[in-house]
């Protein structure tokens, strides 16, 4: 009797499974890893991202960066595993700030090694089990190698300074890393009681050099003081509000009123003015001498404030008001009845300062110092944007260090410690799982290898020296990128956050397991694909109008393509001829 297998997919849909599906995942992961691995380390190179749309290209909306998360979120990918790696990088950026490139490169190398094992007839589940065992040992060895100091001690502040310098070493700010590392540490210590990076305002102003950037002692608001008002005020009692301050509500909201005479219109406007006057009197009754409003302040209420010697600042942005309220220890009010006890903010002085070509308002002598402002200077907007991204990464990793004060050594030292521990585990495990564990250790050693390759050094020789030093018990051996040799990382002062490193290896392993466990993929039918393509086109048009992107498309290969790749490219690929692989992938990119 013939068995009938029902077609569960819609007509025109395509399903790939087994070797073909795994090949798709493999190609996607390797392509993404190769895309960003050249940016890894202190000598990593930058990428230039160009918008897809013509308008964006003509308006020079280009981005120059070596930040892994920025590169990957700007690239349009059409491959399932590629998207997994992008998500992993974004999560690493949101949580830790640092390690966004390393986590993608590590996951890519794990998949590369796993594919080699599968070619040798080792089942994917055995590889997953081996990787899980290796991850457990790697985490244990990383925990043993970490160290910490009390968060209130001066030694811990030195640790934070070294962590910030390590993060900035691979960024645009590397030549001024001492200056910006100190700036980042001072800023993060200002908000140590509330570790919310939104409380750190970064203002970018063209002009000068990046070394002219500084941390403002007070708080800067990107607004100007009202017309005919004093440009300097001391002993300020500040009310922060989010309320409408207009009298022409009928005109604004389009209300239609039938009247019999012009006198009725005048009575209506007078009534509106009386309501506004009463509202302003209620505000004044709380004893403030500065009024800052999220919305516009129209001429009539501004006149009343001026007559009562009250400084007004209007149309303040919401994020700026939130930071200012934290800095002044005030609350944002919306109702002003006299019986309410509204908490006013206080600062010693408000004055208008000029930064670049713009006038801004400075609040000095703030009561709480719950927020702060960093002024970035630079020659162009591209430099300022990349400086902001670099500084954000340093601030994020410092915030993570304040939450967990444990520190590990960088410069490939931690990866080598974990790699040796995993290799020792492989010698004690019987069966095919030991091969998967060895592959995991090899993937960890690729991180220092790529750092050295990007620096133009002989990675094979130096990594071999590092491995020998660690085998002899010198667990401080790492990369001295300046001299191109093995050095004492503790003496070099190259530190990293324990949480950031732990998150990096854990996320990379989980991403690899998710990709390797899948054995089948289905592509939508042509009708559905056309609908989805139209939706994507609209999304991309809207996205590229305001942000930059470059396009990389990794297609789903058919069986003929698989045979060509399997019998012609795989042997070359495993003998380390990357140019052949790159030519093949470039030929299939759309």
How do the helices and strands line up, and which of them pair or pack?
Layout: E1 14-17, H1 19-36, E2 47-49, H2 54-58, E3 63-65, H3 68-74, E4 75-76, H4 80-95, H5 100-119, H6 124-145, E5 147-148, H7 154-168, H8 177-190, E6 200-206, E7 214-216, E8 219-221, E9 232-241, H9 249-253, H10 262-284, E10 290-293, H11 299-307, E11 311-313, H12 318-328, E12 332-333, E13 345-355, E14 358-366, E15 372-378, H13 381-403, E16 406-409, H14 413-428, H15 433-455, H16 459-471, E17 477-480, E18 485-488, H17 489-492, E19 495-497, H18 498-517, E20 520-523, H19 526-546, E21 550-551, H20 559-574, H21 578-588
Parallel strand pairs: 4-21, 6-15, 9-10, 9-12, 10-11
Antiparallel strand pairs: 1-20, 2-3, 5-16, 7-15, 8-14, 9-13, 13-14, 16-19, 17-18
Helix pairs in contact: 1-4, 1-5, 3-4, 4-5, 4-18, 5-15, 5-18, 6-14, 6-15, 6-18, 7-8, 7-13, 8-13, 10-11, 14-15, 14-16, 15-16
GO cellular component, one term: chaperonin-containing T-complex
Family: Belongs to the TCP-1 chaperonin family.
GO molecular function, one term: ATP binding
């Amino acid at each position: 009797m013939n068995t009938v297998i029902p077609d569960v997919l819609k007509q025109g849909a395509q399903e790939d499974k087994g070797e073909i599906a795994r090949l798709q995942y493999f190609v996607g992961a390797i392509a993404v890893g190769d895309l960003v691995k050249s940016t890894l380390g202190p000598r990593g190179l930058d990428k230039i991202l160009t918008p897809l749309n013509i308008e964006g290209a003509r308006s020079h909306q280009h981005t120059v960066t070596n930040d892994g998360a920025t590169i990957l979120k700007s690239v349009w990918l059409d491959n399932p595993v590629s998207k997994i790696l992008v998500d992993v990088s974004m999560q690493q950026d949101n949580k830790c700030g640092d390690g966004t490139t390393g986590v993608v490169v590590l996951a890519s190398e794990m998949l590369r090694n796993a594919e080699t094992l599968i070619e040798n007839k080792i089942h994917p589940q055995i590889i997953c089990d081996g990787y899980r065992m290796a991850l457990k040992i790697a985490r244990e060895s990383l925990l043993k190698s970490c160290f910490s100091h009390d968060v209130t001690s001066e030694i811990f502040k030195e640790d934070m300074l070294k962590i910030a310098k390590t993060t900035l070493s691979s960024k645009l700010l590397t030549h001024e890393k001492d200056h910006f590392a100190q700036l980042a540490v001072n800023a993060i210590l200002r908000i140590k009681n509330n570790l919310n990076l939104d409380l750190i305002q970064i203002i970018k102003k063209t002009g000068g050099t990046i070394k002219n950037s500084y941390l403002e002692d007070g708080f800067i608001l990107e607004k100007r003081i009202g017309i005919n008002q004093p440009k300097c005020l001391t002993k300020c009692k500040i009310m922060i509000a989010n309320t409408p301050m207009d009298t022409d509500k009928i005109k604004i909201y389009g209300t239609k009123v039938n009247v019999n005479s012009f006198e009725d219109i005048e009575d209506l406007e007078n009534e509106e003015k009386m309501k506004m006057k009463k509202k302003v009197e209620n505000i004044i009754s709380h004893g403030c001498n500065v009024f800052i409003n999220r919305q516009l302040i129209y001429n009539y209420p501004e006149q009343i404030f001026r007559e009562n010697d009250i400084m007004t600042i209007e149309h303040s942005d919401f994020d700026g008001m939130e930071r200012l309220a934290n800095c002044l220890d005030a609350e944002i009010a919306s109702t002003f009845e006299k019986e309410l006890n509204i908490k006013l903010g206080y600062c010693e002085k408000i004055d208008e300062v000029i930064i670049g070509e713009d006038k801004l308002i400075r609040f000095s002598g703030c009561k709480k110092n719950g927020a702060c402002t960093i002024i970035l200077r630079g020659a162009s907007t591209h430099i300022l944007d990349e400086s902001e991204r670099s500084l954000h990464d340093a601030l994020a990793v410092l915030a993570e260090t304040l939450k967990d004060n444990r520190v590990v050594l960088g410069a490939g030292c931690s990866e080598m410690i974990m790699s040796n521990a995993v290799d020792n585990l492989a010698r004690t495990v019987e069966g095919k799982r030991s091969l998967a564990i060895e592959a995991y250790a090899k993937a960890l050693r690729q991180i220092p290898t790529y750092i050295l390759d990007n620096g133009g050094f002989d990675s094979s020789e130096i990594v071999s020296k590092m491995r020998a030093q660690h085998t002899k018990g010198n667990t401080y051996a790492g990369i001295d990128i300046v001299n191109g040799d093995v050095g004492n990382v503790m003496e070099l002062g190259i530190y990293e956050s324990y949480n950031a490193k732990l998150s990096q290896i854990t996320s990379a392993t989980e991403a690899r397991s998710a990709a390797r466990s899948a054995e089948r993929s289905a592509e939508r039918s042509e009708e559905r694909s056309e609908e989805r393509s139209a939706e994507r086109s609209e999304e991309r048009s809207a996205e590229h109008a305001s942000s930059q992107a470059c396009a990389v498309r990794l297609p789903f290969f058919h069986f003929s393509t698989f045979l060509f790749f399997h019998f012609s490219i795989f042997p070359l690929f495993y003998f380390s001829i990357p140019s052949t692989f790159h030519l093949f992938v470039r030929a299939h990119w759309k």
